[in-house]
Amino acid sequence: MKIFTFFLIALSILTISPLSWANRVFPLKPQYAFTPKGFDTNDNAQVVLAGAFSDYCMKVGSTQHRVDKIKKKIYIDQTYSTTDNCYDIEMYIPYSIEVNLGTLPEGNYDVMVLDLDHQYTKMSTLPVEKAKIINHEQSDQRLYAPVSSIEFKITKDATPQLIINGVLTNTCLSLASVEVHATMGDVFEVLPIVTDRKNNCAASFQSFTKIVPLRGFTLRNTLIHVRSMSGQSINKVITPVDRLK
Q1: pLDDT > 60? residue 106
Q2: pTM of the model
Q3: Domain boundaries in the chain?
Q4: Which SS3 state, helix, strand or coil, does residue 170 take?
């Protein structure tokens, strides 16, 4: 009886041992490295990594990056983790990762991503333009609306569109227009532009919603990059899953 009890205790310890559930970490080379084209030296430049996992055991890990401003190269180390204690169920699980680079000097930067062989592979190029100078200081080329959320939809007549929501916090601000620029066929840059009357202004909260058609939108994986006030932006990667909603 004592031997049987000892066997049960030993079996239970082995079963719940952390070693049996230990994560294994590997470099993650994404399928896409999206690079919006409208950043200048006054913006927080971004790269958006995207892809899909084949089972639910795989999880997004840490992201590290460094910028060589002399050679104009951005090095990104992205990892994922997995365990052996999962059911082998084939799935499609999209992921996207924003890599915030901060302000960068003017130039075209090669985006280099670490692969499974621990080698850096060029996946894209990120252009950064020189910001406009006003009164000896860098200034944004345009004033963008403060966007709080976006939603991608396909209408009943198969028209892709984007719904933009935000709040204007001054009576002098008004949403003037929304420009859409398709670059390289895989990035849609959406620019919600506001005008500022600059007189008789008062604090006020005015919510806005704008429906924007996405002309030329294709069935390939696409980044929708929406600029926002104060150098901010909202990114959404559209995958086959989104087209089914």
Answers
A1: yes
A2: 0.83
A3: 22-131, 142-245
A4: strand
